[in-house]
Amino acid sequence: MLTHKLLALLILTVVGLIALSLPRQLRKPRGLPLTYGAQQQRAPVHTPPKHHVGAFGRLSNEALAAKDRQLRKIRGKAKDTLQPKGSKVLLLTGTDGKGHNGAITGLLEQVEANREEYCAYHGYQFVFMNLTKYVTPKKHPVWAKISAIQEALETNPTAEWVWWLDTDAIIMTPEIDLASHLLNPDILRRRMACDRTITLPDGTSSGLRVPCNMDVNNIDMVVSQDHNGVNAGSIFFRRTEWSTAFLDMWADPMYVNGQFERQEQDVLNHIIINHPKLREHVAIIPQRVINAYSVGGDEMGWVTGDLVVHFAGCWVSNDCDKRWQDFWNRRFVVKPTD
Ligand SMILES: *[C@@H]1O[C@H](CO)[C@@H](O)[C@H](O)[C@H]1NC(C)=O
Predict the structure, then answer these.
(1) Which parts of the chain fold into alpha helices (H)?
(2) What is the 132 CA–ligand 1 centroid distance (Å)?
(3) 319 occurs within a structural domain
């Protein structure tokens, strides 16, 4: 009698365990690029009502279908801007000529030449902005970055994407074109650090995972994270209303005057972590794709072939000048094609 009961319990446990493990098996395996097909399969199936009552009153099924076509058209367009070529990309670097960047002899000239060469090769626009006009005693100079990105978007209407790159960075592999490296739906989908946790500025995990089913066509901002959360030293914005609104909010005086140790960068982290709806527009990608550091482990430190080396944090040590020159001499050089 007892053995029968035990057997029944055992069978129940096994069945329960199998049931528990099922959803996990149904999940998409890691590392595989997601397709829209897979997403659609998982969406709940429902029959549309005969009439849809919305803000615009009753819409016939025909009208709804027309709206649908319109939406698909817009989406198609969005897809186009995800493969920017030539002047549709604007590389932006800005400086007020002060701070640690002034410590290295000839750094600004090198930076300008480095970016110009890269942009000439690919036909990108390059803006080297004097940030002095945006630096006020009331706020930390790093906040000028946001004004610079806003100005670049406003004054260069052909640019679909603005890539902000800090002054203390060198483009090491200028052959890399952004449409095939990153700004392309399929590549971006694969680059997105799906299922990773978002790191907090203090180095601990936020517990938030980047979802694996994000719609790349919704992405308006691309950024990477290091051990202190997102790093705003290399960041991409797409020309959309979302970006305009986001930049506007990012520079909110409440944030500028708030208690954020690493200023605009920690604020960026704060917004991404606390606003799930905004987060749907943010791609967090592995660091070395756009922001390798001059020192660091496998996922962080520059390796031959990486696009950029960024000397973030280097300025606290004294050998920065030497390290910069070392990388400068190792960079690849390209000549514009005809
Ligand atoms: C940047 O602008 C400021 C103020 O207009 C000016 O004094 C400074 O010389 C400029 N720097 C460069 C490198 O042009």
Answers:
(1) 2-26, 36-42, 61-80, 107-122, 144-155, 178-181, 185-191, 241-250, 253-256, 263-274, 276-279, 287-290, 320-330
(2) 6
(3) no
